[in-house]
Specification:
alpha/beta; 5-stranded parallel sheet
Length: 234
């Protein structure tokens, strides 16, 4: 899968693209990440990408010309999405990441700064995505979050694909508690059921824990009309 990140600060991504599962996925050619600086597509000697807003106001606005030139310089794969990272977009969630991983060959991520983009850039955009109901200094952090979330879903990135199915949000529930050795630590014991070897009982306990944890921490997930619990499992 190809990712093209349009950013004024390509160095922001350097360490992350070489680290952990993301770095391994790129090394194995599961994902290709191309960093594009709009300043490389400016025509003035100062490589200026922003200007004052028409109508007045505080701050600067990113001009349309270098953004259009940057996007139009890229190869166009058949299944392509141009995503603007913005607080005004759809909030990022697991179903969105799964949709992007399964249905697209190329994601172009536009990282804004200052007061945002000239509105005419929206003629390039096919989707707007937000990391949450807050404002950051730029779109790089949301872009990295989206990149990480999508790449880890691509076949070959995670060693055991089964592990993806039991994580938070994958079945509409938060994840169950996890334990490892030692069996007792500072007086806190691992639940007996996990030491029993009874896989049916363990599966039941884990589902019960997921439901209880979701009900306590994220009851909105349980009220989602698309969410159903197989009552035969509990």
């Amino acid at each position: 899968m190809r990712f093209d990140i349009i950013t004024l600060f390509p160095d922001f991504f350097t360490s992350s693209l070489a680290s952990g599962l993301l770095g391994k996925a790129i090394a194995k050619n599961i994902a290709q990440v191309n960093l594009v600086n709009p300043r490389d597509f400016t025509t003035d000697k100062h490589r200026r990408v922003d200007d004052e807003p028409y109508g007045g106001g505080v701050g600067m606005v990113i001009k349309p010309e270098p953004i259009f030139a940057a996007v139009e310089s890229l190869p166009q794969l058949p299944r392509r999405e141009v995503i603007l990272l913005t607080p005004q977009g759809e909030r990022m969630h697991q179903n969105l990441l799964r949709e992007l991983a399964n249905n697209y060959d190329q994601l172009i991520l536009l990282c804004g700064h200052y007061e945002g983009f000239d509105e005419r850039v929206m003629h390039l955009v096919t989707r707007e995505v937000s990391l949450g109901d807050f404002v950051l200094t730029g779109g790089e952090i949301p872009a990295l979050a989206l990149l990480n979330g999508v790449v880890r879903l691509l076949p070959g990135t995670v060693g055991k694909q089964e592990s993806l199915k039991t994580e938070s949000f994958e079945a509409g529930l938060l994840d169950y508690p996890q334990y490892t050795r030692p069996a007792v630590f500072r007086g806190w014991k691992v639940p007996d059921v996990l030491l029993s070897g009874n896989h049916a009982a363990i599966a039941r306990w884990r589902l019960e824990q997921q439901i209880a944890r979701t009900r306590a921490r994220r009851p909105d997930l349980l009220s989602n009309s698309n969410f159903t619990i197989n009552q035969e499992k509990i």
